[in-house]
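ok so i was messing around last nite and threw this chain in just to see what happens. nothing serious, just curious
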Amino acid sequence: MSENENLRLDRIETTLENQGGRLDRIETTLENQGGRLDRIETALGNLITEIKIYDGKLDAYQKASQQVVNIAFGLLATAALSVIIPAVLNK
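result:
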């Protein structure tokens, strides 16, 4: 082989070694990102669970609030009738 070919092969070898180092760094970075994604997935799963619990509590609160409103209207109607009926019947 000529000297030019040897120099060219040396440059190619150096380039390949550099690329191998870059690939190792990329692999490490991807592994780190995979770990981060796992933690994000776990956190998201926990948030979904908490939201489901909150939704259940909110539903119960809404039903209870509606019952309180119904009782209040019932009491108002009863109070109004307890005033109106005696007034009409005593005339």
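not much to say yet. The chain is about 95% helix and 0% strand.
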